[in-house]
Each structure stands twice: as C-alpha cells, then as structure tokens.
Amino acid sequence: MSPGMIEGCIEWARTDVYNFIPFPNLLKRAAAMMYAYITFHPFADGNKRTSLMTTSFFFFINGYTFRITDDAPDFALETARRCEREEGHSPSHEIERISTWLRSRIGYSVFTLATYRKVRSRLAQSATTQDLLQAKGWDTYYVLWRIETTQRFAQLVGHKTHGAAHLLRQLLTMSEE
After folding, report:
1. What share of the chain is helix, strand, coil (3-state, %, to 5)?
2. What is the CATH number of domain 1-108?
3. pTM
C-alpha cells in the first residue's frame, strides 16, 4: 500500500490548473477518482474493488447512491486492461467513458437523502468533508451506506451476508451511541 498514492488518487480528481477545472462536476470527479484507483495502483491488490468502493463512498458523502451493478467488476477490469495495453491511452477519454457508465447508476433513496439533508443542515454552507464526518448524526448516515455496500460486495463475490435483523440491530445500536 502506498499512502501517498491513495491521497494522490483523491487529490487528482480535485485538481485545478490555473483556474481550469478538468473535472467540473460531481460525476466527472467521481469518474476521475475511479480512473485513478484503477490505473495508479495504490495497493498491491484490490485496486478495482477499491475504485468501486471509493466511488460509492464519494457519491454517498455528497448525498447520492451509486448502484454497484452486476457488471461493475467486469467494467473495472475492462478499464484496467484497456489502460494497461493501449499505449498512449487518453485519460480524458477513459474518464468520459467511466462517467457515462456511472450516470445511469447514480440515484438516491428518499430515506438516505432525508438523513443526509438532516446531517448536512446542521453544518455551515462552507463545511468541509471533515466537518461532515464529525457531524452529529453522521454515524447513523454512515451505517446506511456501510450496510448496503457491504451486502452488495458480498453478493458480487458470492459470500453470505447477515440477515436484515442483525443489520437493523447494528443500525439501532450505532444511533443510540
């Protein structure tokens, strides 16, 4: 694992150059981050899974959901293979392709959006991501994402997940703390 590369994947998506913002919206920034994790290889193993997880988390902290569809692992693998074998491949072309793929997989649930808005409403307009992560109610909101994402990844790799009753107990326990 390379901590510098992990930070680099996130920072690369937020970069602006002389007031030019190459990734001007949430979808493009998510696509750039996904591309970075797939191609920069900050981990010895699991970069494609990490790209899906971080993309999901990125949308989550911005109030949206990323549906990790059955084709997601193959899409990430295909992207990695194309970038590895195509000499001089175009990052901007790949990011556009990723953002097109992401577009139909982004949404929100009424409950999750309401929870996000409640947490967000307690913060100043200028609040940072760090402020959000420390806000009252964040733990409950985070558990919603963690439960859904953990179950989905388990399905994709063929593992059994805990039943709904166990997950509900976990959510209620966290909200009581």
Report:
1. 70, 5, 30
2. 1.20.120.1870
3. 0.76
